[in-house]
Each structure stands twice: as C-alpha cells, then as structure tokens.
Amino acid sequence: xxxxxxxxxxxxxxxxxxxxxxxxxxxxxxxxxxxxxxxxxxxxxxxxxxxxxxxxxxxxxxxxxxxxxxxxxxxxxxxxxxxxxxxxxxxxxxxxxxxxxxxxxxxxxxxxxxxxxxxxxxxxxxxxxxxxxxxxxxxxxxxxxxxxxxxxxxxxxxxxxxxxxxxxxxxxxxxxxxxxxxxxxxxxxxxxxxxxxxxxxxxxxxxxxxxxxxxxxxxxxxxxxxxxxxxxxxxxxxxxxxxxxxxxxxxxxxxxxxxxxxxxxxxxxxxxxxxxxxxxxxxxxxxxxxxxxxxxxxxxxxxxxxxxxxxxxxxxxxxxxxxxxxxxxxxxxxxxxxxxxxxxxxxxxxxxxxxxxxxxxxxxxxxxxxxxxxxxxxxxxxxxxxxxxxxxxxxxxxxxxxxxxxxxxxxxxxxxxxxxxxxxxxxxxxxxxxxxxxxxxxxxxxxxxxxxxxxxxxxxxxxxxxxxxxxxxxxxxxxxxxxxxxxxxxxxxxxxxxxxxxxxxxxxxxxxxxxxxxxxxxxxxxxxxxxxxxxxxxxxxxxxxxxxxxxxxxxxx
Amino acid sequence: xxxxxxxxxxxxxxxxxxxxxxxxxxxxxxxxxxxxxxxxxxxxxxxxxxxxxxxxxxxxxxxxxxxxxxxxxxxxxxxxxxxxxxxxxxxxxxxx
Lengths: 557, 96
Hints:
The structure holds two protein chains of two kinds. Chain A is α+β, with helices and mostly antiparallel strands.
C-alpha cells in the first residue's frame, strides 16, 4: 500500500479546508450554483436525482482495511448505509448532504483518501490492473508509475481546465485487465528489443456516444520519459481539443479527426522540447516513491496443489469457487481471491456498511490488510495464503461474497442508471438483477465460461456496454425503457467494440434474449472456444436469427 | 396537472413547492397546478427560491392521479419522487 508523504498530507488537508470555505460561501449565497458547480465537481460532488453524490477516489484500485472501514463509517454516518463501487475503481455515496461534505472530506483525509479530481475536466483517478504487483504474468508493478502520474497531475494547473475529462490506465501485464485501450491514455508495459521494460503508449480510446479503441502513438517509451510524454499528449490536447462542443471535446475525437499520425507528429515535436527537461524522471525518484509502498511481508511458503485438490474433490462447491474466483499469485504459497459483489439479485458494485466492515476484518486476517477494487465492480484480496483458502471461502459465503461467477454471465458490469443518475435514459440495475437471477446455476456458468455482460443506462456508457461480450444499452422510446443489445465487444488486449444485434427489446425480454445468445454459442462453439472466439468465427448472423425469430419476440420498431 | 420539483440546496433532497411557497419532501404535500397561469407563477416563485439559495434546478413535472395517489407521468420523475426502484435500501417505485 502507498502511504502519503508530507506533501500529500499537506495538500489534502488544505484542499479539505478550502472546500469547507467554498461550501460556506455557497450556503450563504456568496456563490451562485453556476459559480459553485465547477468547484464542487473538482471535489467529486455531483447533484444526482435524489441528492448530492460524492465520488471518492481509490487510487489504482488499492485500499487498506482501515480505508474500507472509513468508507463503512461514511456510509453509516452520512449516507444510507451503503456505497457503490464503480467501473473506475472508485466508490460513490448516493445521499450526501452538502453541509456535511467538508466533514466527510476531513474524515477521508485522515485515512489518506480524497475526492480530488474524481470529477471535472481534469485528469481523473488513474486506474490499473487490480492484480498489479501480484500477477504471475506481470513484467513489473505498474503502481509506482500510477503514483508518479497521480502526484504530477493532481492540482497541476496546466491540466485543471482541460477541454473535457481525462482518464489514464496502466497495466504491467500482457493480459489486459485494466481496459487500457478504452482510455484517453493507455499505458501497457512491455520489453523492447534490448529487453528493457518500457511502455507502449496508446491514445484516444474511449466509450460514450462515440466509442473508439485507442491508437498506439508510441511503441515503446522508457519509463524515465513517462511524465514528459504524457505532458506532451495533454498539451496538444489542450491546444486542439474542441472546447466549443462538449460532445466533441474528448481527446478521442481530435485524434480520430486529425489521424493518429498527425497527432503523433504534434506530440513528438512538443516532446523534443521537453524530454530532457526537469520532467525526466530519475530512477532515484521512482525509488523514493517506491519506498512509500510498504512491501507485503510474505512468509516463505510453497504451493499446495495436492492439499487443495483433495478438498476440491470432496467439496464441489469449493471447487467451483476455486475455479472461478481464485487466480495465481507470483509468490509461491499465495493466491489472489476475487470477492464477487454479484450474488443473484444484487445491484452490481453495491455494498453495505456492515459488509465493508466484515471485508475489512477478513482482509486483516487473510490478505495482509489490502483490498483491491476492480473495474468489473468486484473486490479482490491479493495476498491470501493458499492454506487459508478453504477457511476464507467459508467466511466469504457467510457474507454472500463467494458466488463463483467471476468473468461469467452473472458477473455483470452495470452503471447506476436511472435509479440514481441524472444523465440516464433508462434504468440498468433491474436488468442486471433480472439476469443474475436468471443465470443462477453455477454448473451452467462454468460450462459457458468467460462471458461478460455490460449494461449502461445511457449512451455515456459508464457501464462499458460497447465492450461487453454482450452489451446492453438502455434507451428511452416515447417514455418507455427499451434495451439495445450489442455482441462481440471486449476490453482486453484484443479490445473490440460490439456490433449492434438488432431492434431494442423491452426489459422483460432481455433475459430470454441473452439466454438465446448463450445457447446459440454453446451449440456452435468448437473445443476450447470462449464466446468471443465463436462470435469472431461465425459472426453476428446466427445470433440475430436466433434472437429475432418472430415466434420468440415482440421486438419494437 | 403539474407540480414543481427541485433539489434543496443544503442537503440535495428532492422537494416539491407547496401552496404557501415552502418546500416539502412528500409529493402528496406539494402544490398541484392546474392552469398554465398557476404554473408560470409558481415557477417564478421557485426561481426566487433559487436566488435565495433555498433550492437548485426547479422545473415543472406532469402528475396524474392514480387511485387517489399522485404519480409523476415520467419514470424519471417517479424515481425522483419515490426513490430508486432497486438497491440495498429500496424505496419502492410504485409500479412501472
């Protein structure tokens, strides 16, 4: 876990005091709503359908048990006993009172957490692989570079009034678990021909109403140039970004309008001026930041496949959970455990204060105090001793966090939708609930295998519907909610946008349509194929036929 | 019929304008506007409440009677009036 240095503490405390004064001026009428709005947004405070919503950063998805307990306390004291984990590894509280926000920010600062830049036209929370530092396939831990970028971009005046919001994601693994190609800047570690570790730099990815997969702007960048290169990308964006039209203001629009080659020329020309300036990051600075990440104290253990296999053979339910929710760790004798927040009928990403406390306690006992939030709205314990797996599984079951469905049909990404969000056109959570209640047979989930469903309640795509294997987009037609399906999307290292299946369906027909898609895939798949492989081989037609055969649906025009 | 809905500045809660020019939490206690003139006048009153920093973003919503209960016509406004239709602490939408 990263611990704040003296600068972090000072800056965060000052910002909390500053916002207290701003809230006071707003409540006294000294500031109008128009004047106050950009100030509150820079502190993660939105006005939603029911109340203010506070979005709190979980930097690169990494939380201590103490921080999670603080979230439980915030939910209990200032909200309605629960919080919502988002697709950007953040947490949102839904019923916040403006007058209490300064107290909340001070409480959060006590545990080194902030809401700074969790909204607004600035560099947002920098996200990463939730297995960072633990994955067996990782080249190096990307979090030190996440932290370097966080420190550089936080309250940086040059990046505080960008044309639009700006999202950066990093991964240190060839297997992309952080959806880097769907970000304004994606950074993917790999080795150059000399065997040195650096970053492939991607730019101009994003979802929303105009989705794009990012382009590679540079094949390999030495880590010492990370800040200067990111600065040059941001500078060109600041110069050319469309401030005249909010819907065309993201970097993806100009990258795709001028073309990646032209954008690269502009960036490289700017970068030549600054690459060897003070922005060049000396190894000593990387080491300094690294020293603030307390290294986990691992025991010297060996993997115990025989013991685990023995228990798995005796207890099929444990076996299913091991197969679906537990991943390999780079340290022998340890595993990564994914906690499913997607039990049947649960709103994806929601967690009660009591469950947060329980998870914090379990993290203390079984995961060296650390919890990760991932972009699929689940949590992970990243340092679990293999000999504790069986006990932990039983504990997680007590809290309904052991549904063996990670990366399966019922592990659904879902935005808050019209139940909470001011921008939404339709609800999304009820669709996720319908589907997770429909697909409850865990043997069937295992049979189907990797299969992502992502649901958004409007075209802003917070629920990542463009990159779900099945994407579901809520639309509003003449005051009624309908759902548009897309197929074949993916956010991994072979990222792809989904293709529109056909006419939008009413809510009550969505589960049957998804089941038809699943059954069509099962009937056509070849050995070892995931849904995505089958889809890429056979195309959309068989699925279209199956879903829209007239006897099955009453689809609307 | 119409009503005026807004968020209260201090805590963001959904409120409705009532007959006396105050703001109330329950849709049943808000002012029902039956004429365009009423609606225009009340919207002016609501705008004054914005200037006086009592509420933000007031606007008119259409409301229908439903078995003696007031019910906003649009799903979005029903969700605002009655709370999320889902969630760990469901408030109940009162049907579709």
